[in-house]
Structure formats: C-alpha cells, structure tokens
C-alpha cells in the first residue's frame, strides 16, 4: 500500500521553462496537462498545494533591461507575463477537476483575486489549490523569491522546485563540465557559497534564514512530485546545515538515496 504523505502543505515552484516542455518559447499544452495531472494526484492524497509560476517562457525583465528598457518597467511586464501562465495553469487544473484560485500580487481583478495571506490559507484549508501570480509584486525580484516568501507566509513545509531536464542540483555547470554530478543533499549555505544553481541568492538566503527545505527535482519524471510528498528521496534536498551532509556528498550506506539514474 502507498505510504501516507510526508507533508501537509507544499509550495510548488514552476519556472516558465517548466511550462515550455521541449518548445523554445511559450507554453506546451501537453506539458501543462502533465503538470495538472501531477498536482491532482498529490491533492487526492490530501496534500495542500500552492503554486508559484514564473514567466521565463514568455518574458524576463532582465532581457528587456538589456535592450535598454527601464528595468522596473521590464520587470512589471515580467510579472504580468506570470499572470498569463497562472491562468493557463488554472484552466488545465480545472479541466481535470482541481478546484483552483489565482491570487495575484498585482491588481488584475477581472481575472484573479488580490493576494491576501489569510485568504490564501483559507483556500488551502478548503482544499483549493492556489496559484500565486505576479511574483512578489515588486520589480528587481524573481518568482524564486516569491516562492520563498509565499511558502513562508502560508507555512508550507517545503518548496518543490521543478527543473526542466536536470535531475537536481549538480556540482558544476554541465555545459562546461560534462562530468558534473548530482548532489543528493546540500545545505543552503553551501549552495550559496558554491554558487550552485538552486534558485537565485535572494530567494536562497530567505530559505536559509528561515530553515525552509527545498526539493529540487526533474519535472520530466511524472512520478517525482508524488514521490517527494511521500518522503522518497528524489533529486536534491537543500536544507539547513544540521540536517544535511557537511560536504554535499552522497548519503552513507543505509541512508535513503537519491533516485537519479
Ligand atoms: N518579476 C519581478 N518581481 C517578482 C517576480 C518576477 O519583477 O517578484 C519579473 C522579472 O522581470 C522576471 C519575470 O518577472 O524576470 C519573470 O519571472 P522569473 O524570471 O522569476 O521567471 P522564471 O525564471 O521562474 O520562469
């Protein structure tokens, strides 16, 4: 028989890339459907799910700024792009019968509720899946920081950080070093000091300061979200120093192992 979920409430961070599948740009309907099915599955196991969506598949403020646009304006455009992704995901979730609310940090009242922390928690308690749109509502931040912030605000027990095509956190950039290896476990501090790409440093610091674990996993394996909420070790666990190995090395014999190939 399947084991009981380990978490009661989690926050799933979906970057824009995670919605893109194999496309170069935009959203892949088949990929969104797969994500919706996975969220549905964990909901059916009684786990409350909040989602933060990014927008790298549509627009990134930094790209606009690089082309000479005012950074704050470009960032607001990026935040608006996350609203598009949030509505796409809401539509897919509703199609598979998952009751969903979009809560936006920017006013778009025709399509989403404003973000109100207590309301978000209430939705979760009522079994609704919530999607946080428009990041933190502030330019110069990212949706990774929004994920850390909202997870803390709603008392999520962990952030599930979906990656596109990588198994978790690697010890080097695979495009530079083809021998880069997966780190099954690492502390927030080590990830910051070694410049490992878990999430951006503002977001990572927020998680470190507040002892919030991050599970970094490959979105391509459709069993991964369910595995993580059941307590199976998949990809990389980024947690506080006391809980993790001091050198980010593989677990010792007898300890649960990562499930990467
Ligand atoms: N953004 C922002 N403030 C936030 C969150 C996002 O200004 O709190 C903007 C920023 O321009 C960013 C864009 O929205 O580039 C899309 O978010 P992000 O790059 O985090 O998306 P992801 O990489 O997760 O797809």
Write structural notes for this entry.
By secondary structure, the protein is an alpha/beta fold. The protein is 36% helix and 16% strand. A 9-stranded mixed sheet has the order 4-3-5-2-1-6-8-9-7, with helices on both faces. Helix 2 crosses helix 4 and helix 6 packs parallel to helix 8. The C terminus is likely disordered. Bound molecules: uridine-5'-diphosphate.
What is the 3D form?
A: globular
Q: How many DSSP helices?
A: 9
Q: What is the alpha-carbon Rg in Å? A: 17 Å
Fraction of helical residues:
25-40%
Name the ligand types: uridine-5'-diphosphate
Estimate what percentage of residues fall within beta strands: 15-25%
Give the topology string: H per helix, E per strand.
EHHEHHEEHEHEEHHEHE
Q: Which spans have pLDDT < 50 for at least 5 consecutive residues? A: 243-261
Report on the biggest sheet.
Answer: 9 strands, mixed
Number of strands: 9
Strand order of the largest sheet: 4-3-5-2-1-6-8-9-7
The structural class is: alpha/beta
Alpha carbon gap, first and last residue: 25 Å
Mean pLDDT across the residues is 91
Write the layout of secondary structure elements.
Layout (H helix, E strand, L loop, with lengths): L8 E6 L1 H5 L8 H16 L3 E6 L7 H6 L4 H25 L4 E5 L8 E2 L2 H9 L3 E5 L9 H11 L4 E6 L21 E3 H6 L7 H9 L4 E5 L5 H6 L6 E4 L22
Parallel strand pairs: 1-2, 1-6, 2-5, 3-4, 3-5, 6-8, 7-9
Antiparallel strand pairs: 8-9
Uridine-5'-diphosphate binds next to helix 1, helix 3, helix 4 and helix 6.
Write a brief caption for the model:
This protein is of the alpha/beta class. The chain has 9 helices and 9 strands.
């Amino acid at each position: 028989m399947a084991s009981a979920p380990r978490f009661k409430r989690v926050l799933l961070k979906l970057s824009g890339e995670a919605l893109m599948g194999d496309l170069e740009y935009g959203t892949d309907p088949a990929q969104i459907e797969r994500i919706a099915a996975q969220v549905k599955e964990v909901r059916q196991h009684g786990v409350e799910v909040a989602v933060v969506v990014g927008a790298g598949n549509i627009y990134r403020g930094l790209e606009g700024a690089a082309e000479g646009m005012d950074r704050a304006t470009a960032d607001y455009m990026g935040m608006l792009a996350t609203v598009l992704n949030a509505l796409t995901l809401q539509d897919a979730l509703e199609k598979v019968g998952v009751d969903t609310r979009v809560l936006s940090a920017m006013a778009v009242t025709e399509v989403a509720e404003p973000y109100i922390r207590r309301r978000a928690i209430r939705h979760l308690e009522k079994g609704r899946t919530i999607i946080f749109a428009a990041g933190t509502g502030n330019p110069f931040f990212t949706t990774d920081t929004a994920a850390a912030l909202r997870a803390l605000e709603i008392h999520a027990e962990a952030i599930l950080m979906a990656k596109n095509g990588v198994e978790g956190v690697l010890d080097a950039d695979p495009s530079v070093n083809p021998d880069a290896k997966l780190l099954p476990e690492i502390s927030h501090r080590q990830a910051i000091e070694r410049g490992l790409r878990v999430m951006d440093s503002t977001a990572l610091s927020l998680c470190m300061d507040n002892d919030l674990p991050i599970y970094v996993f490959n979105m391509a394996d459709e069993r991964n979200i369910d595995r993580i909420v059941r307590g199976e070790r998949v990809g990389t666990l980024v947690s506080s120093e006391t809980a993790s190995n001091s050198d980010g090395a593989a677990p010792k014999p007898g300890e649960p192992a990562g499930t990467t190939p």
